Amino acid sequence: MYAVELDGVSQVYVNRKGAYVALQDVQLAIAPGEFVSLIGPSGCGKTTVLSLISGLLTPTSGTVRVFGEPIQKPTPKVGYMLQQDYLFPWRTIFENASIGLELLGRLNAASRQYVLDLLEEMGLGGYADRYPHQLSGGMRQRVALVRTLAAEPDILLLDEPFSALDYQTKLQLEDLISATLKARGKTAVLVTHDITEAIAMSDRIVVLQPNPGRVLTEAIVPEAIREAQPLHAREIGGFHELFRELWGRFEQMDGKGGGGHGPAET
Ligand SMILES: Nc1ncnc2c1ncn2[C@@H]1O[C@H](COP(=O)(O)OP(=O)(O)OP(=O)(O)O)[C@@H](O)[C@H]1O
């Protein structure tokens, strides 16, 4: 059984200016424990795919399944991590990290301890009683990761979670997230504009093309790269070849007029 399955999925957005086909007949299957990155030019539908998997959006046609079940609304089985950390400034780090459990009515002695353990694991052990403004951007994003992991989702959706961070912090967080998800056998879907990040973190890369959003091609990341920590993966043979291959796909799309946003945005 697949962790995530998009079966003939199309998504049409309708607004005052008419209808825009953001995704057309997308077929995608992700195995449990697999780390898949979605890349492609701006507007090709990457975030729409995540919204569909999360249950925030219902497809215009086709089916989205999570562990075999059609998904109709958000479920704790699927966690979502965004570019912004969205921490509440008036809540402590512990209170921010545990808010999901609180809302689900699952905050008890055991889950509190789990959140404290996760904070410790993310190097935030001494910060539980601090407030978000006392933390750096990278630390805040680690709190967001704890908040997402606290509800013990099986699938993590990561929508450009590193793009607001400085380069060094981004590399460190890539390593931390990769190790954390691998150790727990989580399934992950990462949306990124950074091809090197996609190669360093993923088992498989799916390239989407715009107008309308479709799967253009897929690439399996060589085993040696997959087994390395993202930081070191960049030095392994095959990395640059795969980068060039994927970059070539982007150039091809540019040549065909891809890379633009659809009419819905204007
Ligand atoms: N709610 C909406 N209403 C109308 N059009 C939308 C809506 N959401 C997205 N779109 C359009 O659908 C297309 C796909 O959007 P989406 O955000 O999924 O793309 P993306 O690949 O994630 O883009 P980016 O890389 O710029 O974040 C775009 O043309 C966008 O303008």
TrEMBL record:
GO terms for molecular function: ATP binding; ATP hydrolysis activity. CDD domains: ABC_NrtD_SsuB_transporters. InterPro entries: AAA+_ATPase, ABC_transporter-like_ATP-bd, ABC_transporter-like_CS, ABC_transporter_ATP-bind, P-loop_NTPase. It comes from Paenibacillus elgii. Keywords: ATP-binding, Nucleotide-binding, Transport. Transmembrane segments: none annotated. This is Spermidine/putrescine ABC transporter ATP-binding protein. Residues 4-235 form the ABC transporter domain.
